[in-house]
Specification:
Poly(3-hydroxyalkanoate) polymerase subunit PhaE; mainly alpha
Length: about 130
């Protein structure tokens, strides 16, 4: 069995572990300061402002290209879902009314009468 002192993998693991502990303690001390908190608040505010500006710019670009924005597409999808829900309600009401009157179910559409006759066995029209 190899000795832990001369094992390069064990030395590497120990060195990385010590570096990690040192970095964690340094980061913990740095995050406790009010300056760090203020800097993070400023960075977050700047990122939010940049994101809003980008969104506005993208909406203007889509408008100039005559394309719908994400907000408009969401509105269309919501209206479409509402319309589909109303159609479903209308279908169920019609089915109930049809069943109450003793008619055929609504889902099977009536077919037109079949007026064309198949060709006769003689080979065609005379």
């Amino acid at each position: 069995m190899t000795d832990k002192i001369t094992d390069p993998v064990a030395l590497w693991q120990k060195m990385v572990g010590e570096m990690e502990k040192g970095f964690n303690s340094f980061a913990t001390k740095a995050m406790e300061t009010p300056e760090f908190s203020q800097a993070m608040n400023r960075a977050g505010g700047a990122a939010a402002g940049a994101q809003k500006q980008f969104g506005d710019l993208m909406e203007k670009y889509l408008l100039s290209m005559n394309l719908p924005s994400r907000e408009q597409m969401t509105g269309i999808a919501e209206r479409l879902q509402a319309i589909e829900g109303q159609i479903g309600e209308i279908k169920s009401m019609l089915s109930q009314m049809s069943a109450a009157s003793g008619g055929s179910p609504i889902d099977t559409a009536p077919r037109p009468p079949r007026t064309k006759r198949p060709p006769s066995e003689g080979g065609g029209p005379k």
